[in-house]
Amino acid sequence: MTQPQKAIAPKFFYDKRGSELFDQICEVEEYYPTRTEIHLLKTYCRDIAQLVGQDCLLIEYGSGSSAKVRLLLDALPHLAGYMPIDISQEHMLQASAELAQSYPDLDVIAVCADYTQDFQLPPYSKKPVNHKLIFFPGSTIGNLHPQEAIHLLKQSRRLLDKGDSMLIGVDLKKDPAILNAAYNDAQGVTAAFNLNLLDRINQELNANFDLSHFHHWAFYNQDESRIEMHLVSLKEQTVIIDKTPFHFRQDETIHTENSYKYSIEEFQDMANYAGFDAQQVWTDADHLFSLHYLTI
Ligand code: AVI
């Protein structure tokens, strides 16, 4: 907030209310990524199962995508275990407990870690593991700058052995009108999700943001191949955060999120650069979203 371009990292969106609003975004008509990725998983889970084979340890980055991981859990034969990795312990333990109820024979090993930072997998020896598969759905990789995305891929590669793989959802470049609509839904759910950040700062950092004096703004930045989300100050104002005043000019913004979009080739090049082989890619008929199967 002290930089010339005020900015807040998008990971701060996801408090309880923010996570609920994100779940609602996934349901709105204009936000195609979730339903398209689910469609791809449903259509190709048998192909994925064949590539992975038996006794797989399924590692998931994040644990919020229970509907998606269930499709894999149902399709993969004789799983060695399921290891969700999430920074939010509370969220992960709840999601893991629900999965353990639905899959009583499944060995669930919940790991509390930040998968964007360097970390090690805990030793796992309960059942023989023939293959490790990292599942990273939702195009969450798009919320990282491309340099950070490469770093995450390299870090993921270090967790794997020869023959192991990564299944990753990546949102595709497309008509900017479709992208702009997806981040400006008519119901205003994305706007509420963006503005919730200010509510969170008010509550957690003793601040006095007036939400009616800020506006949600999302647009596709073609030069950078990314959706940018901002909160725009509708007037000149001063906001106090934990006793420190922050001045806003009229129309000054807080940059809250980038969501990078890639072509299939661009993402494959990035994966290659990070040491993966792009073995298989699936996309929908409208080329909205891609699911990449990478091996090492
Ligand atoms: C989580 N992430 C991939 C979403 C995206 O599309 O970048 C977050 C989001 N922001 C606004 N709508 C959805």
From TrEMBL:
Every Histidine-specific methyltransferase SAM-dependent domain range: 2-294
Pfam families noted in UniProt: Methyltransf_33
Record has Methyltransferase as a keyword: yes
Molecular function GO terms recorded: methyltransferase activity
UniProt keyword annotations, A-Z: Methyltransferase, Transferase
A biological-process GO annotation: methylation
Domain of life assignment: Bacteria
Protein name: Histidine-specific methyltransferase SAM-dependent domain-containing protein
Organism of derivation: Coleofasciculus chthonoplastes PCC 7420
